[in-house]
Amino acid sequence: MKRLGILISGRGSNFEAIAQNIAAGSISAEIAVVIANRPEARGLATALRLGLNAVCIPSKGLDREIYDRMLLEELSRNAVDLVCLAGYMRLLSATFIRQFPNRILNIHPSLLPSFPGLDAQHQALDHGVKISGCTVHFVDEGLDAGPIILQSAVEVLDGDSAETLSARILQEEHRIYSEAIRLVLAGNYRIEGRRVTLT
Ligand code: GRF
Fold first, then answer.
1. 109 neighbors 121 (Cβ within 8 angstroms)
2. Which of 101, 134, 187, 194 is the most buried (most CB within 10 A)?
3. 11 lines ligand 1 (CB under 6 A)
4. What contacts 99, CB < 8 A, 6 or more positions away?
5. Residue nearest to atom 14 of ligand 1 (CA)
């Protein structure tokens, strides 16, 4: 059974959707550890309530290299195969990324390469796009930049606020993140340049 390490900073709804799919048997993997970098992360309480191995490693004030080494230790202690960033609001160091080549996934609430970075749903509304969505991608050393595994498009409605648009995108996030994890764990894909294709 493959072992997932999930990194969160906040609400943790993507983590929860993954946990539900694992519990329902639709992803065959186990959550080896949930790590929050903020003690107040709501997802941390959820993970503990679900009886998962959940730890907080506060990142505040720590140098990235030093912090990432602490993360790597925790992940290796738990023999993690695949790292899933789920609302993890920190950049990872190159040292960290090199330890998990093509073994780190991220979910982003826009159709990348549009609107990387913070407040992607705000950015989409401000730009006036008619279609936005979400993206699951491999993590490389760029910001929201690695090869794209899955995307889902969501229409932007005239009356949308950042909240209403975010809520509709989030439903799709919950669906495609688990789908991407299944796909990556099954190993039936090839990465050529930026393209991820099914084999
Ligand atoms: C999601 O919109 C995700 O795409 C982005 O941060 C948000 C996290 O939400 N990276 P949650 O903590 O999973 O509820």
1. yes
2. 134
3. yes
4. 72
5. 13
Tell me, what DSSP letter sits at residue 39?
T
Q: What is the distance between the alpha carbons of residues 46 and 38, in angstroms, rounded to a whole number?
A: 14
**Residues 130-179 pLDDT 10s:** 999 999 999 999 999 999 999 999 999 999 999 999 999 999 999 999 99
For the Cβ of 9 lying below 6 angstroms from any atom of ligand 1, the answer is no
Tell me which of 3.40.50.170, 3.40.50.150, 3.40.50.410, 3.30.1540.20 is the CATH number of domain 106-199.
3.40.50.170
Task: State the distance from the centre of ligand 1 to the C-alpha of 40, rounded, in angstroms.
Answer: 15
Specify the amino acid at residue 128: G
H or E segment and range at residue 5: strand 2-8
Tokens of 4: 């997932």
CB atoms < 10 A from the CB of 177, how many? 25
